Amino acid sequence: MPTIQSVLVILLSIAFTAYILYATRLTRLDMRYAITWLIVAAGAIFIAIFPNAIIWISYIFQFEATTNLLFIIAIVVLAVIVFRLTVTLSKLEKRIVKLTQTLALLSGAQSEASADECHLDKDKEI
Questions:
Q1: Dihedral of the CA atoms 101, 28, 26, 8 (nearest 10)?
Q2: pTM for the complete prediction?
Q3: Residue 126's pLDDT band (boundaries 50, 70, 90)?
Q4: Mean pLDDT lowest for which of 2-6, 11-15, 19-23, 52-56?
């Protein structure tokens, strides 16, 4: 990778890291998700600093071109991120259903309690 491209990747990764930390500090992004993106940024910096490592790995696994290995790595990383987010989404959906059911039960109990009070008040008037 030419030096200009390496410097550009490093600068973009540092800017991305700064934005992740800023979003985390403002509580827009939870730390467990921020860590994933920080690892991705660190990986990009590693590849920019040590491009020969990727060339060596692609040679060992007999990739025709180094870019093929980079695309495979990117696809796998993004698939892992999507899977983690899908698991989190499923957990949140279950929590929403449980909270909705709890709220409905509490609301029903409150309605019954207020109806009983009204009924008792009418009995006292008679």
A1: 170
A2: 0.72
A3: low
A4: 2-6
* Token pair listed for 104: 């409905």
CA atoms of 21 and 31, how far apart (whole Å): 9
How close are the terminal C-alpha atoms of the chain, in Å? Answer: 92
Report the alpha-carbon distance of residue 55 to residue 72 in Å, rounded: 14
Evaluated on CA atoms 119, 121, 123, 126, the torsion sign reads negative
* Integer angstrom CA distances of residue 74 from 61, 81, 84, 113, 121: 16, 11, 15, 58, 69
Per the CB < 8 A criterion, the answer to whether 56 and 69 are in contact is no
Residues in the chain: 126
Find out whether 38 and 20 touch, Cβ atoms under 8 Å: yes
- Joined tokens for residue 81: 């991120």
Indicate the helix (H) or strand (E) that contains 14: helix 3-25
